[in-house]
Amino acid sequence: MERHDLIVVGAGPSGLSAAIEAAKCGLDVVVFDECARPGGQLFKQIHKFFGSKEHKAKIRGFRIGEELLKEASDAGVQVVLNATVLGLYQEKEVLVRIGDEIRHVKGDAILVATGASENTLAFPGWTLPGVIGAGAAQTMMNLHGVKPGERVLMLGSGNVGLVVSFQLLQAGCEVVALVDAAPRIGGYGVHAAKVARCGVPFYLSHTIVRAEGTDHVTGVVIGEVDKSWQIIPGTEKHFDVDTICVAVGLSPMSQLLTMAGCDMADDPKKGGYVPVCDETGATSVPGIFVSGDVSGIEEASSAMIEGRIAGIAAAKYLGYVEQAAEENEVHALETSLDALRQGMFAPKNRGKDLRETEEGCPISQNLLRKGYLSDEEVFAYPGVRKIAGVHPVIECTQNIPCNPCQDACPKGCITIGENITSLPVVNPDAQCIGCGMCVASCSGQAIFLVDEDAGADTATVTLPYEFLPLPKAGDKGQALSRSGAPLCEAEVAGVRSAPAFDHTNLLTIRVPKAYAMRARFFQPMEGGCAEWANQWTVPETSAPSFRGPMTIC
To answer: What is the pTM of this model?
Structure first.
């Protein structure tokens, strides 16, 4: 029988991180994954991560995946793909199918990092072709370069629904609406804001009444819900769509742990049925560990740290690490993990109706209900100031764990402090040089450079832009407001791209001075619509490949 010190089930961000740490400690590690590519969800994630440098902030997900694969290879980790683990037994033996072969593999320790599966929602017509999960849409777009549809309705306003909605726009789809039965947006406000300023309307307290069509989706009807989640008669709205994208949460894939006899618990705050484990990922069965979404739904950044902790704990269990060394390493990692679990979206704050930020700023109700800040609300935040000359305007209004903008500014114009969930503050005494590093570094695309007096009663606004082809200096179009509504005529004053920006281009538009603090997106003239094409050249075996161009008007 094949035998290893540690068997890891799942080659996603958490499983790879665990395998790397265990291998560094000297363990013989094998990783089994049922997919044809390692890296899990990372290679679908073309957006930049939040957090700090140690959390791989402002690095795109698939880049992080590449880094993990290289680390795993360098550490001597064996990754076996197209390998489905069918059984996990208390004697720490797994039954794995590789191709047409069934193998019994024994481990001295087992680490399960199987992640989570997408939830779905049953409604009349939900089985029609054209109703897909958000993860499926990401797979089609970001791995295979295929548009999921032309006109899409997104159901779900959590981070997955918001991020995938923006990626649908980048892929050339028209997102006709973003719908959620909850009364407020569930994901980060900065994610919602970048979708809203592209003109996507939000329908909160709404759900799908039915999908229309015979052999495929041709339309969808939504309706408003009351406090008992019942559809209010007469509130129905119809949209012509060919795709309904569902992003209504995730459920831990914990079946193997139930099979192994681990103590389990139904914990809604963790996403469902999860193993009972301690802070190192150790379950009730000695030698079986867990990490990542299988033990509770969180962001990929948290999953990677959990994996590292569990990998070290497994090494200590097998006697490869002294207790003192293990405690020191785990403590440092737990401190880093704790930083990600603070702020408005911390597990302890789930379900709370927070009204103020940690600094005492009012939380924008317009943002929570419509996806964008109102013109009156924006000045309540410390990142928004009127300053002579070019200066950053930071429309980051929620306490989320992220601080790359502070590190990016070479002149100290932006401060956050030691607590990475604090709101960014613009220092009016620092001299902004207009380098744009803060704009490019912001994972939420919430920073703009504004010069409110650019001459001839005009202003310039530099905004993040991730659509192709890029407009050129002199191109004319419309400036759009935070809500995506046409605001005024705009002319492109310049476009900057640089390797340090990592494909977040800086688009500077010239607008009438009165609109300097309101213009937040640029729409080229009709007939000159933006396109999304392949921005990254990456190995076919490990990262997304765009087969563009695809258009967005």
So the answer is: 0.91
